Amino acid sequence: MNIHKTVVILLALLLAGMAMVPIVSADDDSTESSASSLSQGQTLQPASGSTVNIDEAESLALYNVRELATKDQELSLWSDATVELATTYYDIKNQKTAYAFNVLKDGQYAGYILISATTDKYPVLELSKGRIPGSDPEIAVKSRAMISESLSEGKEKIVSDYTPVYLGGLDYYQKYTVKNLKTKKNEEVFVDVHSNKIVNISDVKIFVPDKITPAQWNTYQKEKQDDIRKSWSLQRQMMQNGSVANMAVSARSTLSYTNTISGVPIYLWTRGCSPTAAAMVLGYWHDHGYSSLPLSTTLINAIADKMATDPSGSTWPFNIGYGVNQVLNTYQYYSLRASDDYVPTWSRDVAEIDASRPFVLSMYNGGTGAGRSTPYEDHSVTCIGYMDSTPQLLKIYDTWEGSTYHWLQYNNWGWAMNTYVR
Predict the structure, then answer these.
(1) Selection from 278, 213, 228 nearest residue 391 by Cα
(2) Judging by DSSP bridges, how do beta strands 359-364 and 338-341 pair with one another?
(3) Which of these, 49, 174, 186, 235, has the minimum number of CB atoms within 10 Å of its CB?
(4) Domain-terminating residue out of 167, 188, 203
């Protein structure tokens, strides 16, 4: 699998009229503190959910694979598919977080579906016709070699096989245990499967926007957990009843139940995920009346320059819409404008897709590890479709994999902001 991500973007959670405070991603050694940090004498407790056993997870996987096949033409070949457990994922404390199942059509690989291993996360987390992130054996070979090369006195240390780690969103890692034969002590080393880089997860610093209080954050998390509980209840009812058609899941008509925008170009990570995701959006508008806009790498570079993306690929989120508008101004396209939505909703996202307008989704804290009050990593993707179902899913190009799209469970992040182009 050809992975093109090298560094995640630094995101700030932006709310209208509020000061912007950077979030330090997992590979940043910054020790900066902030008055808005939730660590100042106040602790947010992670949600407590029950464990989902493998049998129920497999039943959920098979049920959703066959149900989703009836709602999305591109997944129609899954209608009589089977599922097979591929990987069990854990968090940084070795607690189960998710099960990845291979989807098999006539015994051949046809994609995967990711089911939560705990009821404090949405039942269906992700699905795709592509490969499971990190499943290429070459990634583990390269990771072990990289870890061995980075160790001093390498002959006195042993690198174990890895444990698959999933922290939510698009955050997949391989955790290795390095045993020091002299001291008899073990050290855990995490490798991001997308960037194939060692990351220091234990040193992640969590920041939230200025003026956001722990009470406000807890209210958001409570509402999210209420929604998750409803999703589990509905999923279990649907499996008992045998068909989503028997449930009053959505008032939307069958024809508008799922929608995908065609003609969005697919670009791979270049100079950063934010300019790459934004370039896919503007590349779409190139073929819809704005033909003077450049395409591909030329467009990505132009946007990255205007967004002030740094050499490592990091972009401040409030620069995304600004950078897009500056590029449009360069080509004298003043009727097409980018705008940022700092508190997006499902209904607004659906409305954008129904209006045939792809957009950039910048995830803040794409997943939570056990024992943490907020998730870890951040990333920008291009949204091209949705499935208004249970689960509610967004269809995305994640900037890392060629023509492969992913279905991502809506709200499977700590927070997010969208950049619409209208």
Answers:
(1) 228
(2) unpaired
(3) 186
(4) 203
What is the CA angle 314-385-334, rounded to 5?
65
**Residue 108 within a domain:** no
Is there a single domain that holds both residue 286 and residue 365? yes
Instruction: Answer yes or no: is 7 within a domain.
Output: no
Q: What is the pTM of this model?
A: 0.70
274 and 142: one domain? no
Closest alpha carbon to 88 in 49, 48, 128, 61: 61
Within a domain: 71: no
Task: Give the range of the structural domain holding residue 260, as residue numbers without chain letter.
Answer: 256-421
Nearest Cα to 14, choosing from 3, 23, 27? Answer: 23
pLDDT at 198 over 90: no
Q: At 291, is the pLDDT very low, low, confident or very high (cuts 50, 70, 90)?
A: very high
- Residue 272 to residue 269: CA distance in whole angstroms: 6
The Cβ of residue 86 has, within 10 Å, a number of other Cβ atoms equal to 17
* Helices and strands in the chain: count of H runs, count of E runs: 7, 16
> Once rounded to an integer, what is the mean pLDDT over residues 138-160?
78
Q: Which amino acid is at 193?
A: V
- Amino acid, single-letter form, for residue 361: L
For the chain, what is the domain count?
Answer: 2
Alpha-carbon distance of 174 to 30, in angstroms, equals 23
Q: What average pLDDT score do residues 133-142 get?
A: 86
> Does the pLDDT of residue 53 top 80, yes or no?
yes
The verdict on 190 and 264 lying in the same domain is: no
Binning pLDDT at 50, 70 and 90, where does residue 400 land? confident
Please tell me the number of Cα atoms within 13 Å of 368 on its side-chain side.
Answer: 21
Structure tokens at 173: 């890692």
Across residues 279-301, what is the average pLDDT?
97
Q: Is the pLDDT of residue 13 over 60?
A: no
* Pair 274, 380: CB distance under 8 Å: yes
- Within a domain: 125: no
**361 and 270 belong to one structural domain:** yes
Are residue 190 and residue 262 in the same domain, yes or no? no
Q: Which amino acid does the sequence have at 381?
A: V
Q: Is the pLDDT of residue 244 over 70?
A: no
Cα distance between residue 373 and residue 84, in whole Å? 33
User: Residue type at 365?
Assistant: N
Cβ atoms < 10 Å from Cβ of 322:
15
d(CA 245, CA 108): 29
